[in-house]
Amino acid sequence: MDSTILFVVSSLLALSLPLQVEPAKATNPQITVMGVVYCDICSNNTFSRHSYFLAGAEVRIDCMFKAISPRTTEQISFSVNRTTNKYGVYKLEIPSVDGIECAREKAMESSCRASLMWSSSSSCNVPGFRTTSDEIAVKSEQANLCIYSLSALNYRPSKRDITLCEN
């Protein structure tokens, strides 16, 4: 994705976050995993001016978080399905886990993967980017907040509209 598209996606993700972050206890982090799903009208795996975010798409999220601390050997693994909101954003908020401090440098190993399950649009339902584990992690020690933003997933129409997508 080019920098303009990444900025637009990041802005939309930020809109879906609460405006205020309430301080958490130092040992009880708030962990959020999120990403977007869009319709790739031109079937070229990029967000073009004809692309749009898909509301109501179903995404499966698989994550593993493991504390790297002398105090604990906690590990959390889970799989959940989430539906995108009107901006094409899916989000999972993980409850606080005592003993895991996500915002500290090297305090936690994590891996998350998102996979397309089904599209909400009959006109844009052919999977493009089906699975992603690429993430950008944003951590705030002050609020002990960690956000894992996964790369965008997309669907395509079954037929490419040549009039819209000519170079």
Explain the overall architecture:
This is Pollen Ole e 1 allergen and extensin family protein. It holds the Pfam family Pollen_Ole_e_1. Residues 1-26 form the signal peptide. Keywords: Signal. The protein has 167 residues and is mainly beta. It has one domain. The chain has 2 helices and 11 strands, in the order αβββββββββββα. The chain is elongated. It starts with a helix and ends with a helix.
Which overall shape is indicated by the principal axes computed on the Cα atoms? elongated
Show unreliable segments.
19-27
SSE sequence, one letter per element: HEEEEEEEEEEEH
In what range is the share of β-strand residues?
A: 35-45%
Structural class: mainly beta
Radius of gyration, taken over Cα atoms and rounded to an integer in Å: 17 Å
Helical content band: 10-25%
Characteristic key phrases:
signal, 11 strands, four-stranded antiparallel sheet, 2 helices, 167 residues, seven-stranded mixed sheet, mainly beta, 10% helix, Pollen Ole e 1 allergen and extensin family protein
